[in-house]
């Protein structure tokens, strides 16, 4: 049986922790955006124009918050996906099987691993 790396040095565990923290931040940001949406709907119901509503909305705008949340989740989720694929690869799981597990092609898994292997922080 292959020994498991300690959690402190396991890049996949770090990626899990980063993604978990990002999810918590995203939930808080989206809850705040949802509250602001209720306020925007209330202003509109009172007869304000969309131009007045958006012009007077404080920053970040709801649309900016949503964009920021999606970008951050995409980035941290992508890192997690790469690290998880690499962890499976280190356990000698084939790219075909990893693709099955992830619901993508083996070519997509090969691309994920290749991107990670050629990144500057890998010393390659």
Q: What's the SSE blueprint?
A:
Layout: H1 11-45, H2 50-56, H3 62-90, H4 95-102, H5 106-117
The end-to-end distance, rounded to whole angstroms, is 29 Å
Radius of gyration: 21 Å
Give the low-pLDDT segments.
119-124
Q: Overall 3D geometry?
A: elongated
Count of distinct strands: 0
What's the rounded overall pLDDT mean?
Answer: 89
Amount of helix: over 70%
Biggest β-sheet: count, sense, barrel? none
Counting helices, strands and paired strands, the structural category is mainly alpha
Given the structure, what is the number of helices?
5
Share of β-strand residues? under 5%
Describe the structure concisely.
The chain has 124 residues and is an all-alpha fold.
Task: Give an overview of the whole structure.
The chain has one domain. The protein is 73% helix and 0% strand. It has helices spanning 11-45, 50-56, 62-90, 95-102, 106-117. Residues 119-124 have low confidence and may be disordered.
Structural key phrases:
124 residues, mainly alpha, 73% helix, disordered C terminus
């Amino acid at each position: 049986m292959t020994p498991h790396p300690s959690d402190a040095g396991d890049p996949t565990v770090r990626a899990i922790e980063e993604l978990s923290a990002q999810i918590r931040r995203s939930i808080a940001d989206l809850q705040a955006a949802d509250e602001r949406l209720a306020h925007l709907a209330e202003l509109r119901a009172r007869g304000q124009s969309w131009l007045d509503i958006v012009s007077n909305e404080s920053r970040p705008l709801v649309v900016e918050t949503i964009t920021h949340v999606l970008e951050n989740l995409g980035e941290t989720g992508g890192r997690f996906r790469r690290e998880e694929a690499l962890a499976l690869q280190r356990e000698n799981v084939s790219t075909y099987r990893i693709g099955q597990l992830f619901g993508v092609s083996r070519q997509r898994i090969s691309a994920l691993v290749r991107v990670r292997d050629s990144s500057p922080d890998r010393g390659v």
